[in-house]
Prior knowledge:
By secondary structure, this protein is α+β, with helices and mostly antiparallel strands. It contains twelve helices and eleven strands. Strands 1, 2, 3, 4, 5, 6, 7, 8, 9, 10 and 11 form an eleven-stranded mixed β-sheet that branches. Helix 5 packs antiparallel against helix 6.
Amino acid sequence: MGQCCCKPAKNAADIVIDGDDYEGSDEFWDARSELSVASFVSSRSFCADEPRSLADEPRSPAQCATDDPDVKNALHDALKLKNEAKVLGARRRLLELGDRAFWETQVGNEAVVRIFHQASLVDHALADMHKDDAYMVSREHPLKILYKHEQGGTAHSIKIKCLLKHPISHVVSIPYEWDLLPTWNKYAMDTIKFDGGAMYEALVYGASWMIPPFKDFQAFLRASGVDVSHEAGCLAIIVEDSEREITRDYELPKKVPERRVVNFEEGSYIILRPVFEEDGNEHTDAVLCVHMDPHIKGVPAALVNFALHVFAPYLFRQMEKTLTDIFHGDDTYSKRMQATPEVYQLIDNAVNNIRHTMHVACS
């Protein structure tokens, strides 16, 4: 046989983690990237120059490309950037070596596919946040509420814009500490947060009381924080429907069968941009956009619009009160933030980068 052009795949068991400082080190990322590439080639052990047989199918040049040092280095760098919530930077690093088709077809790595998909969702969010023409205005103050519904469909699109007089790290604690929602939102029920695979990602379940005769609503979501401070001067949270994954892998409340599932369609997001006041205080300019499908036909748009007009301002006032109260004294939210400093430090670092960029631009 000819000499194999790819090294034998490394198993996860071969990677030994030694000490608390291993994760995040160069050795860690070398191992992660090697394992990611190996996951694609682990079931093959023959190369393109070996003879073809029914048992010994030759490897194609495209498959052997995963052993290229440049591919490994790019994947190593991209995974590290993704772990820092810099998904657009991760995509840029991959595109330096090849286009999306190259990475998805010739490398075929799940993490790579996820980077490109998530980056495209971020692109959409950044472009969509200012596009309001297709919406009707439900309310202007104290927050702007926009609503859109296509006649004959069951999906409803809602966009909310507001200025919160609190720093981004405090605002992020509201969705990040998902299980605490019922402490201030009387309509929220059974809010559960599952592991999302990274410190800035979470799988969540939650239910909400609904006006009779409707059943209470419930949603299964994946929320992913993205640092776009370098590209757009803001932070983003990408919201995706994850009903299949959560119902398959996790234990859920007994009342799930009694509730109506609301699916979140692609294109849902939160954008948070810091606003620096002359007195040095940091406020947050927020845009929330969700495309929800409760699968109910014949709900009048006027009824949904009325409900938004009444309930959204109430929830806004409750959240404002919570943000004001919880960070003055010994409270659950501040304790949670202190328990996961790495998450909130990532946010503070991004905000400081934005502040520095604005200072340089103005000088």
